[in-house]
Amino acid sequence: MLRIATNQLYYQAAKTMGERQTALAKVQQQMATGNRLLTNSDDPVGSARLLGLNEELSRYDQYQRNTDLANGRLNLEETVLEGTGEVLQRVRELTVQANNDTLNDSDRRDIATQIRQLHGELVGLANTQDGNGEYLFAGFKSHTQPFVLDGNNQAIYQGDQGQRLIKAGPNLDVAVGDSGIDVFQVDSTDPAKGLFATLDKLASAMETPSAQFHQAMADGLAALDVGFDNLSGIRAKVGARMNALEDQQNTNGDFAVHLQQIIGEIGDLDYAEAATRLSRETLVLQAAQQSFVKIQGLSLFNYMR
């Protein structure tokens, strides 16, 4: 009976010392990592909530990356639209100049040459690519060059009318581009209509003046004004999208900070409380070791001393 009792005391003391060593190691690991919850079993409810909060935080991080991407695309579009406006303005100035009766046919041919060059610039702007090599105004067919010139110098649109959307927030999808049809007023059923054909017809009228020359200039100026109005509308939409992105980015950032605060409250370690536990567990472990030594008699601990 005495032997059984002694064995029970020995194993109980050994168990207690092991438990205290585990508890001390846990506090030390908590202090090393700064995390209160090391395993799900430490706090099943808190761990489940942390998992959900971290998943939500990841979604908001993705929203922020999306808004950065969208801003880059829209800033590039705004730059191209500005350049397009400058081209149209220059064409308008040249057209007004060519419409002056003091100019002769040679002067008008020189102006036509300049308009041909501006036509080429306009095609280049319409075929702008972003940093990933995707065409800005091709709709969903972003890897297809949107505009090519046929044998009659008419711009043929090869993209589609798709408009890419990007998720900038839980309730906000923002368009990150406009199709070439919308921006450059392309009529897929009649290539002779919107902006490329306007420039081509103006240049042709200046190269071979006829009795309808002034009417051709008036028609061209009217078409350019329509193009300006359309361009202004597109730029206003782009500006509105950029403003919406900025507002959403601020909202996303604020909510992400809120999520991080909640995550910290649940999962971050209270170092003051942990230091108190470390001291307590150290004392308890020392007491358990001393108790174990007394039960064991000569032990490894004494031998090591």
CATH superfamily of the largest domain: f41 fragment of flagellin, N-terminal domain
Kindly give the count of domains.
Answer: 2
Number of strands: 4
How far from one another are the termini? 33 Å
Q: How much of the polypeptide forms β-strand, as a percent range?
A: under 5%
Shape: rod-shaped
Strand order of the largest sheet: 1-2
Sheet/helix structural class: mainly alpha
H/I helix tally: 8
CATH classification class of the largest domain: Mainly Alpha
What's the architecture of the largest domain, going by CATH? Up-down Bundle
Low-pLDDT stretches are 298-305
The rounded Rg comes to 37 Å
| Overall helicity | 55-70%
Reported by name, the CATH topology of the largest domain is f41 fragment of flagellin, N-terminal domain
